Amino acid sequence: MSQPLKNRRRKDYPYFLSYRTRWSDNDQYSHINNAIYYHFFDSIVNTYLIEKCGLTPAAAPLIGLVISSFCEFFSPLSFPQVLDLGLRVTKMGTSSVTYEIGVFSEGQDTPAAVGGYTHVFVERIERKSAPMSPGLREGLTMLLSSRTKL
């Protein structure tokens, strides 16, 4: 049986991105609005794809389309906290990849939330699923949950 998401720790994620929350991230209850977590997910995934996989979003022949997503919340976060976003890959196919993101308050070992999504890579114009390029596959393999930290 897999480990419950609530039990994740920093060591479970090989790649991190720091995120400084903004005043506008808060909702009327003075905590980060649920929808903002999906901005966090997009930020870390796309930063990784650009920096480590050589993806050039405006010119890439393949684009990733989100086909499913999820998020579980464990403790509230609020502006002006600084967050550490952790990224790993939990599943990878020929043209698809499933990411998991841990959202940590700066310096904390337990996540405030864990979520993620599945990308299916498709041809930019025709929107037909296509195999990942070798560079993309190599970069994403580095994030497979069974590998070591970057």
UniProtKB/TrEMBL annotation:
Domain of life, per lineage: Eukaryota
Hydrolase in keyword set: yes
Entry keyword Coiled coil: no
Annotated InterPro entries: 4-hydroxybenzoyl-CoA_TE (IPR050563), HotDog_dom_sf (IPR029069), Thioestr_dom (IPR006683)
Domain spans labelled Thioesterase: 30-111
UniProtKB keywords: Hydrolase
Transmembrane segment boundaries: none
GO molecular function: fatty acyl-CoA hydrolase activity
Protein family per UniProt: Belongs to the 4-hydroxybenzoyl-CoA thioesterase family.
Protein's name in the database: HotDog domain-containing protein
Organism field: Mycena belliarum
Lineage, uppermost ranks: Eukaryota, Fungi, Dikarya, Basidiomycota, Agaricomycotina
